[in-house]
Amino acid sequence: MSEMTDAEIRDLLRACPTFKYLKSIQAQNPGTKSTQQVLKTSKLVHNNKIIRPRCVFQYFIDPKNWKRRRKPKSWPRYLNWPRDILRGTRHPKYDERSYKAGKLKWSEDCQGKNCQDMGHRNAREPCDCVTPDWHSVNNTSWMNREIELWWKNPILGVSTISKRSHQSGEILGEYFGEIIPVQKKGTDCTYFFSLPLSQEDDQSLIGFVDAARVGSWTRFINHSCRPNTAFEFRRVGSTQRIVIVAEREIVAGEEILIDYGESYWESLKDEGKYCRCGKGCKYKEPKTNTQGRQM
Question: Where located (predicted)?
Fold first, then answer.
């Protein structure tokens, strides 16, 4: 993960491609009911500005977002704050004293490509791997060959369609984006992925991965209460990576779906937003009785 200057971020945004998706529209020929497919550029409103998200296959940090953010009291002395946030997240059996001293043991093996030290789980220097086993999916060539972006409807927006079959357990990509600090309540969290300090406490947040401005195709995966993929953390060397894993076989032409999780839908309750996927929905709006009380 790189810490970038404002100029470097601007250069990155200019150099990286935007996302294109297909949309079916009514043909213009009078008297016909045929449709045609047109290519559109993805855009959204972010911080009251219309932006066009850029395709990247990395995590990065904008230093100005962290200037007034103090590191946690238990932050390990040997890690840089906030640059090493992916090294400091999700430690097992968290306790502040051991964490700060760097004495914790990892609970999972490294998933680095050709890792020579699969059994080494020392928290401080587990190994020097930086390239994951699934590195071949982290590029535009794989994305263009395997994934198609289609406009679904005004509520769900763009959907991700698999062009070929994928087996259960296969890693389809990573959830890349910008590492940002914990935000105030009411902030748009549509593209957030939480980074907890501890594996055992998802509420011990130290930041988020935000894919609003930049990210990979995985930022477009829609929610379903009956998903065919799942988010998982995988360790590569000394860092945690966020991957999307197929939970069952996905056939060609099928939409790739994922469960956004309870914390995501909890954050939207105050806005009166609930899941409407209609597939054994776990996060739907609660029913109320005649007195307006939840049943």
Answer: Chromosome
